[in-house]
Amino acid sequence: MIKKTLCLLLLPIAAWAAKLPEQLAVPGGIVKIAVGKRIDKAPKVFYHDNRVLVTQDGEDWLAMVGIPLSADPGQHRITVVHDNHKDAKTFNVANKDYPAQRLTITKKRMVTGFTEEDLKRINADKIAMTKAKAVWSERPIAADFIAPVDGRLSSLFGLKRFFNDIPKRPHNGLDIAAPTGTPILAPAAGKVIDTGNYYFNGNTVFLDHGQGLLSAYLHMNEIKVKPGDWVEQGDELGSVGETGRVTGPHLHWIVYLNKATVDPALFISQDIARLDARNKK
What we know:
- 10% of the residues lie in helices and 38% in strands.
- With 281 residues, it is mainly beta.
- The chain has 2 domains: 13-93, Peptidoglycan hydrolase domains (Immunoglobulin-like, Sandwich), CATH 2.60.40; 100-280, Glucose Permease (Domain IIA) (Distorted Sandwich), CATH 2.70.70.
- Strands 8, 11, 12, 13, 14, 15, 16, 17, 18 and 19 form a 10-stranded antiparallel beta sheet that branches. It has a 6-stranded antiparallel beta sheet with strand order 1-4-3-2-5-6, with no helix packed on it. Strands 7-9-10 form a 3-stranded mixed beta sheet, with no helix packed on it.
- It is globular.
- It starts with 29 loop residues before the first strand and ends with a helix.
């Protein structure tokens, strides 16, 4: 059942503790950096001018930085802004060579030969999705994720993709294959930012889990929530489908941190082996 409540906004500071994703300092990964003591006010943190999530970790404030897939290996920097001063902290990003994946798309206009109307829709979609991805809410995060669908791990994050032998952007999410109609569940509590039917992504839902931690659910058959709804972990968002640019029914699941797409597997590492095991049956 969808719950519309602002109760999380009233939680005391001690409730900011959350189960956090694994750290992986590579493009598309996450770095966690201590940025102050919790006896002090939480600082504001920025990475490439984007605000960074800050949460409680024991007696410290911890910045959780999403590393873009486009990030170069080497030293990177965050800016930490306190009430009366600011400083910088650095971290290193290692190289990761993601493998290639080649897919055949039978709907040719999902790859090339776009009409003028197609291009108008694609551009309008970009504007709507950019607005959704820019949402920031000052509230405790919900980062203790469960897998959003019970299915088979079908495509990993970060793959270099070729559609009909044409190079496209790297895979920015995790694909879980399941029959059409399989329920898609909220992996953690959050607010529905937006829903829509997009040219490439099909039926899509965006969720806000707090402080720039966002998630998106693509290619859905049916959407069962609307913008502004509050969902708890396990609430049904809709069902698996094959709308948009697909090769079969599946959920394409995206997680954003400070506007960067990061590997959703880092949030459900305890469940990846179970989903992947279904590829061997």
